[in-house]
Design brief:
The structure holds 3 protein chains of 3 kinds. Chain A contains 17 helices and 2 strands. Chain A is mainly alpha-helical. The longest helix of chain A is centred in the N-terminal third of the chain and has 37 residues. Chain B has one domain. The longest helix of chain B has 42 residues. Chain C is 64% helix and 3% strand. The longest helix of chain C is centred in the C-terminal third of the chain and has 29 residues. The chains are: A mainly alpha, B mainly alpha, C mainly alpha. At the A-B interface, α10, α11, α12 and α15 of A face α2 and α3 of B. The complex binds protoporphyrin IX containing FE and copper (II) ion.
Chain lengths: 632, 129, 142
C-alpha cells in the first residue's frame, strides 16, 4: 500500500474515532458521575450515597469504582486462566507418549513450544498478577477504611491496559493462519536471547541461512524473517508491566494516605501489609523487565546490540531478567500468604499466632528477594564467588517463609477448626507450600542445582508453589469473600469437590514431575523418544502419564469450580450479614462489617429483604447509622 | 526520635523482631565464613561483589526492620495512650479490628458452629468429597 | 487524608459545584487512554502508519479529557494542543535523525523504516493539533 493509500485510510479511521468520541461524550452527561452526588452535599441525610453509575455495559466500560474494577480484574484473570490451562492440557496430552503424535498435525514441536511460551506468560502475567489485583482492588479500601483508591481513574487505566496486553501476547496464535511469517512466539517465558532476538516464525534462527544445503552462520539478523509474533508478545508484556506499575503506585499511595483515622500501622491487617510489600516489589522490579523488553525490541527491530555477543551478551539479559524475575515470584506469593494469614485464623477460632512475626517476615522477604536473583543462573558459568554470595542470601530468605508456615500451623494447633471450603484450601496451601519451599531451598544450594537445573525437578518446584500454593490461596479467597462480592453463597458440595480434585490433581501432577527431575528428564521438550539410556524411557513414560492424569483431574476440578461460581452467582441463596459466624468467634473483620452495613442500608432503602437465611447465621444486626457506605 | 526508639525497642519488640534477626545472623555467618575460610581465592571484583550482595542485603534488611518496628510499635504506643486517655468511653478508641493481639487465644472456646452451614467437624472430612 | 481535588467544574458550562470529598464513580477516559497507548505502541514498533496515527490521536485526546475531568486543566483543547506538539516534535526528531528529507523531487523522502515511523508520528501530531484547533474554535463559538 502506498503512502497516499495509507494516508487516506488513516484519515478515514481518524474521523471514525472522532465520531465515536463525540457520540460517547454526548451520550451522557459525564459530570453526573463525578464525585458530586454524595450524601454530604445533600445536607447530611443518611449516607447511602446515590452516586449513580451508567447502566448496562457502559457501566463496566467506564467504572472507576474500586469494587467494580476488582470484579473486572477477576473476570479477566479467569479468562486468562482458562487460556493458559487449555494450552497446558494440549501439552500434557502430547507428553503422555514419548513420540510426537497428538500435536503432530497442528505444527508439532514448534506448536508445543508456542503453547509452552503462552502458558507460562499467561499464567504469570495475565492470571497471577491480575487475580491478586482483583482481591486487592476490591478489599484493600474496605479493609483500611478508605472511600476508594487514592487515584480511581489511574486504577481504571491500569486495568484497561490489560485486555490489549493479552490480545497482543496471544496475537501470534490469531494471526498465524493469515500470515506466513507470523507465528506465536516460541521464546519460553524467560525470553532469553539469542532466541528472543533472532527467531523466525518456523522456530529457525534468523541469523543463519542455508546455502547449497549447508547452514551458514551470519553476524547479521535477517530482520524480515523475524517472527512478528514475538514483537507483539513483547509489546503486550510491556503493557501489562506498565499496568502493574500503575497499580502498585496506586496501592502504595492508598495504603499510606487513605487509611481511616483508627487504622494505625499497628492496626493494619495482614493482607494490606502483603499488598504494600508486593507493590514495593513491583515498583522496583517491573521497570527492569520493561527495560529488558525494550532492549530486546531494539535489538530485533533497530539493529542495536545490547544482547549480542559483542554487546552485553546473553548473561546481561539474564541478570536484568532475573533481577525482575525472582522478585516477581514473591510478588505472586506474598498476597496469597496474606490471604492465608487472614482467612485461616477465622476458621481456627482464634487470632493469628504471632501476627507481628508474619508482618516482619513479609517485609524481610520483600527486601531479601532482591538479593537472590542469580540463583537462577548458577549453571550459566558465572563466577563461583558470585554463586556463593547468592546462595547465602537464598538460604537466608528461606527463614521468613518457614516462620510463616510455623505460624499458620500453630494457629490451627488446638484451635476450633471448621473445615469450610476456604479453610480446606488454606490447609492445602500449607501442605503444598512446604513441598514447594523445601524443593526451592534444595535448588538454592549450588551443588544440588547444578544437577537438577533445567530438569522437571525445577518445574515441579515452582508448580508446587504457584499452583499448589498461590492458586490454592486464590481459591480460598474466592470462596471466603464470595458472599460479599456476590451477596450469595456458593454450593458447598461443589466447593468440596473442587478442593479434593484440585488437591489430588496437583499432587499427582507435580510430584510426578519432581520424580521425573530426579530421573534427569529435561524440561521444555515436546518429545522424549530420543532418550537412549537403558530402561529410563519406561520410567519417564509412566511418570508423564501420571502427570497427565493429574492434569486432567485438575481440569475437571476447575470446570466444577466455574460451574459453581456462575450458578451460585446467579441463583445461590442470599446471605445474611455474617455468613461465617465471625462475631460468635470474636473475630470480626472490617470487610464483613461493611457487608453487614450494606445489607442494612439496602433494607432501609426498601430493597428486598434477604430471603430466609440459609446459613447458620450468628451475626447480630449491626447499628444502622454508624457509617455512610457512600461509595456504592 | 531517640526517646521514641527507646520506648519502641523493648524486650517484647525484640522478640517479635527475632524473625528478621535470624536471617541477619545467617548472612553475617556467611560473610564471616567466606572471609575467614573462603573456598575461593580473592578476586578484587568478584569477591567484592560476593560480599557486597550479602552485606547489602544485610544492611537493607536491618534498615527496613528498624523503620518498620518504629512505625508499628510507635503507632501501637500512640493508640494505647489514646485509649488510656479516653478510658471512659474507651470502646471506640481502641477497638481491635485486626488480629494484632498476636498470640492470645479467646478465653472461651467458641461453640462448634456449622461452617458453611453444615455441621461437619474436622473429624469427618470424608463427608466432603 | 487528602482526597482527589475537584476544585470546580471549570470546563463545564453549568458552573461550579461544591468541593466534595467523594470519589468519582465513572469516567469515560481510562479505557481510551489504555487502548490508545496500546495501539500507538504497536503502530510505532511494528511500523503501521494507521495504528500510529489513530493510537496517538486516541491517547492524547483521552489524556486531555481526563485532565479536564479531574480538574487539573481548565481547557482540554489547549492540553490536547500541547500533547500534539510533543508528538509532533518527537516525530520530527526521529524523522530528521534517520535521514528523512523534505523538499526535492519527491517532496517527502522516507529513506528507511525508522524515518517512516517518524513520519507517522509527525502526521499523528499534526492531526492532533488540527483537532485541538478546530475544537477550541468550536467551543469558543458556543
Ligand atoms: C515462594 C514462592 C516461590 C515461587 C513462586 C518460586 C518460583 C520459581 C520459578 C517460577 C522458578 C523457575 C524459573 C524458571 O523458569 O527457570 C523457580 C526456580 C528456582 N527457585 Fe523458586 N520459587 C519460590 C520459592 C523459592 C524458594 C523459597 C527458594 C529457595 C530459597 C527457591 C529457589 C529456586 C531456585 C534456586 C530456582 C532455580 C532452579 C533452576 O533453574 O535450576 N524458590 N522458582
Ligand atoms: Cu528465584
Amino acid at each position: 500500500m502506498g503512502l497516499s493509500g495509507e494516508l487516506a485510510l488513516t484519515l478515514l479511521t481518524g474521523v471514525l474515532v472522532l465520531i465515536v468520541f463525540a457520540l460517547a461524550t454526548r451520550f451522557d452527561d459525564w459530570r453526573t458521575y463525578t464525585p458530586l452526588a454524595g450524601g454530604g452535599a445533600l445536607g447530611g441525610e443518611t449516607g447511602y450515597g446515590h452516586d449513580e453509575k451508567p447502566g448496562g455495559i457502559v457501566r463496566w466500560l467506564t467504572t472507576v469504582d474500586h469494587k467494580d474494577i476488582g470484579i473486572l480484574y477477576g473476570v479477566y484473570a479467569i479468562v486468562a486462566f482458562a487460556w493458559g490451562g487449555l494450552a497446558v492440557m494440549l501439552m500434557r496430552f502430547e507428553l503422555a507418549t514419548p513420540a510426537m503424535d497428538v500435536l503432530a498435525s497442528v505444527g508439532g514441536r514448534a506448536f508445543y513450544n508456542q503453547l509452552l511460551t503462552s502458558h507460562g506468560i499467561t499464567m504469570l502475567f495475565l492470571f497471577g498478577t491480575p487475580i491478586l489485583a482483583a482481591f486487592s482492588n476490591y478489599f484493600i479500601p474496605l479493609l483500611i477504611g478508605a472511600d476508594d483508591m487514592a487515584f480511581p481513574r489511574i486504577n481504571a487505566i491500569a486495568f484497561w491496559l490489560l485486555p490489549p496486553g493479552a490480545i497482543l501476547i496471544w496475537a501470534g496464535f490469531f494471526l498465524a493462519p493469515f500470515f506466513d511469517g507470523i507465528a506465536a512466539s516460541m521464546t519460553s517465558w524467560t525470553m532469553y536471547p539469542p532466541q528472543a532476538v533472532a527467531q523466525t516464525a518456523a522456530g529457525q534462527d534468523a541469523m543463519s541461512y542455508e546455502y547449497a544445503g549447508r547452514v551458514i552462520a551470519s553476524s547479521e539478523i535477517d530482520t524480515a524473517a523475524l517472527n512478528a509474533g514475538t514483537d507483539l508478545m513483547l509489546l503486550g508484556l510491556h503493557l501489562t508491566g506498565v499496568s502493574a506499575t500503575m497499580g502498585a503506585i496506586n496501592f502504595i499511595a492508598t495504603i499510606f494516605t487513605e487509611r481511616g483515622s483508627d487504622v494505625g500501622w499497628d492496626k493494619l491487617d495482614i493482607f494490606s501489609w502483603t499488598i504494600l510489600t508486593q507493590s514495593a516489589l513491583i515498583l522496583f522490579s517491573f521497570p527492569l523487565l520493561g527495560s529488558a523488553i525494550v532492549m530486546l525490541l531494539l535489538d530485533r527491530n533497530f539493529a542495536t546490540g545490547f544482547f549480542a555477543v559483542e554487546g552485553g551478551g546473553t548473561i546481561l539479559y539474564q541478570h536484568l531478567f532475573w533481577f525482575f524475575g525472582h522478585p516477581e515470584v514473591y510478588i505472586l506469593v506474598l498476597p496469597p500468604m496474606g490471604i492465608i494469614s487472614y482467612v485461616l485464623p477465622r476458621f481456627s477460632g482464634r487470632k493469628l499466632f504471632g501476627f507481628k512475626f508474619v508482618v516482619y517476615s513479609t517485609l524481610a522477604i520483600g527486601v531479601l528477594s532482591f538479593g537472590v536473583w542469580a540463583h537462577h543462573m548458577f549453571a550459566s558459568g558465572i563466577d563461583p564467588r558470585l554463586r556463593a554470595g547468592f546462595m547465602a542470601v537464598s538460604l537466608a530468605i528461606a527463614i521468613p517463609s518457614a516462620v510463616k508456615t510455623f505460624n499458620w500451623i500453630t494457629t490451627m494447633w488446638n484451635g476450633n477448626i471448621r473445615l469450610t471450603t476456604p479453610m480446606l484450601f488454606c490447609i492445602g496451601f500449607i501442605a503444598n507450600f512446604i513441598i514447594g519451599g523445601v524443593t526451592g531451598v534444595f535448588l538454592a544450594a549450588v551443588p544440588v542445582d547444578l544437577i537438577l537445573h533445567d530438569t522437571y525437578y525445577v518445574v515441579g518446584h515452582f508448580h508446587y508453589v504457584i499452583m499448589g500454593a498461590i492458586a490454592f490461596a486464590v481459591f480460598a479467597g474466592v470462596y471466603y469473600w464470595f458472599p460479599i462480592v456476590s451477596g450469595r453463597m456458593y454450593q458447598r458440595t461443589l466447593g468440596k469437590a473442587h478442593f479434593w480434585t484440585t488437591m489430588v490433581g496437583t499432587n499427582l501432577t507435580f510430584f510426578a514431575m519432581i520424580l521425573l527431575g530426579y530421573g534427569g528428564m529435561p524440561r521444555r521438550y515436546a518429545t522424549y523418544n530420543g532418550v537412549t539410556a537403558e530402561g529410563i524411557i519406561g520410567y519417564f513414560t509412566n511418570l508423564h502419564v501420571i502427570a497427565t492424569v493429574g492434569a486432567f483431574i485438575l481440569l475437571v476440578g476447575q470446570i466444577i469450580w466455574l460451574v459453581n461460581m456462575v450458578q451460585s452467582w446467579l441463583e445461590g441463596p442470599v446471605v445474611g450479614p455474617d455468613p461465617w459466624n465471625l462475631k460468635e468467634d470474636g473475630l470480626p473483620s472490617r470487610e464483613f462489617d461493611w457487608h453487614a452495613d450494606r445489607i442494612e442500608t439496602t433494607l432501609a432503602d426498601g430493597g428486598e429483604p434477604a430471603e430466609d437465611e440459609p446459613m447458620t447465621d450468628g451475626g447480630e444486626p449491626v447499628d444502622a447509622d454508624d457509617d455512610a457506605a457512600g461509595d456504592e | 526520635m531517640i526517646a521514641m526508639a527507646e520506648r519502641v525497642f523493648t524486650k517484647d519488640t525484640m522478640l517479635d523482631l527475632l524473625v528478621n534477626i535470624i536471617p541477619l545472623g545467617i548472612m553475617a555467618f556467611f560473610i564471616g565464613l567466606f572471609v575467614l575460610w573462603g573456598p575461593f581465592s580473592w578476586d578484587p571484583l568478584y569477591s567484592t561483589l560476593m560480599l557486597g550482595i550479602i552485606g547489602g542485603s544485610f544492611l537493607l534488611l536491618a534498615i527496613l526492620t528498624y523503620i518498620s518496628a518504629v512505625a508499628i510499635e510507635g503507632d501501637a504506643i500512640k493508640s494505647e495512650e489514646a485509649g488510656r486517655a479516653a478510658h471512659a468511653e474507651d470502646e471506640s478508641a481502641v477497638v481491635d479490628t485486626a488480629e494484632t493481639n498476636a498470640t492470645d487465644t479467646p478465653d472461651e472456646t467458641p461453640d462448634a458452629t456449622g461452617d458453611d452451614g453444615t455441621d461437619e467437624r474436622k473429624d469427618s472430612p470424608e463427608e466432603a468429597v | 487524608m487528602s482526597k482527589e481535588r475537584v476544585e470546580d467544574g471549570a470546563a463545564s458550562s453549568e458552573g461550579n459545584r461544591a468541593v466534595t470529598d467523594h470519589k468519582p464513580s465513572a469516567s469515560l477516559w481510562p479505557m481510551f487512554i489504555a487502548f490508545g497507548l496500546a495501539i500507538a505502541e504497536v503502530g510505532v514498533v511494528v511500523g503501521v502508519f494507521v495504528f500510529t496515527v489513530i493510537g496517538f490521536l486516541m491517547f492524547t485526546g483521552a489524556v486531555a479529557g481526563i485532565l479536564a475531568e479531574a480538574g487539573y486543566v481548565e481547557r482540554p483543547w489547549v492540553a490536547l494542543g500541547v500533547l500534539g506538539t510533543v508528538v509532533l516534535a518527537l516525530g520530527i526528531a526521529v524523522f530528521g535523525a534517520f535521514g528523512g528529507v523534505v523538499g526535492g523531487t519527491e517532496l517527502v523522502a522516507v529513506p528507511n523504516a525508522v524515518a517512516y515511523r517518524g513520519l507517522s508520528m509527525i502526521s499523528a501530531g499534526a492531526l492532533t493539533i488540527l483537532t485541538a484547533g478546530v475544537g477550541s474554535i468550536r467551543s469558543e463559538l458556543t
